[in-house]
Design a protein that fits this description.
Shape: elongated
Structural class: mainly alpha
Distance between the termini: 30 Å
Length: 154
């Protein structure tokens, strides 16, 4: 089963962020089309595409809907097939490292010194640890051919 095409008609063509969101979603569909994905997931993606194609959107609504659909599709594909976009784990573990490693390290360091002004010192350390763990997981996913050749920006 093939993924349908995204055919959204818009009034205003000169919105660079919206154009980037459309390009990213189309690239995601292209990458998923190259892989063997279950028919249930393809049906779900096609349903999302037909929903996006059927409405008349303002630029703001369309961008928000595109990002929402992109995230939901990525979650489904990651859960079912373990396929992830580029730098997925690095971004995920960067945040987790700051919260799980950095903040506790900063608190311990601040208490040891006796000055709570240094509580934020652990955040960059945790971010570096998280990015290192995430980068190694991304490398492993690429070696196992589980990485989609698309990177999502905010």
């Amino acid at each position: 089963m093939k993924i349908e095409k995204l055919t959204i008609t818009r009034n205003n063509q000169d919105n660079p962020k919206l154009n980037q969101a459309l390009e990213q979603l189309n690239k995601l569909f292209y990458e998923l089309d190259k892989r063997e994905i279950s028919d249930d997931i393809v049906k779900s993606i096609n349903q999302d595409i037909s929903e996006l194609n059927s409405k008349s959107w303002t630029d703001k609504e369309l961008k928000k809907s595109l990002k929402k659909k992109q995230k939901s599709i990525c979650k489904i594909v990651e859960k079912e097939h373990k396929l992830v976009p580029e730098h997925y784990y690095r971004k995920l573990w960067m945040m987790m490292g700051m919260g799980a490693f950095g903040l506790p390290f900063g608190v311990v360091y601040s208490v040891m010194i006796g000055n709570m002004a240094f509580i934020g010192l652990g955040l960059p350390i945790g971010m570096a640890i998280g990015m290192a763990v995430g980068a190694s997981m991304d490398k492993k996913a690429k070696e196992e051919d589980r990485q989609l050749e698309v990177e999502f920006t905010v």
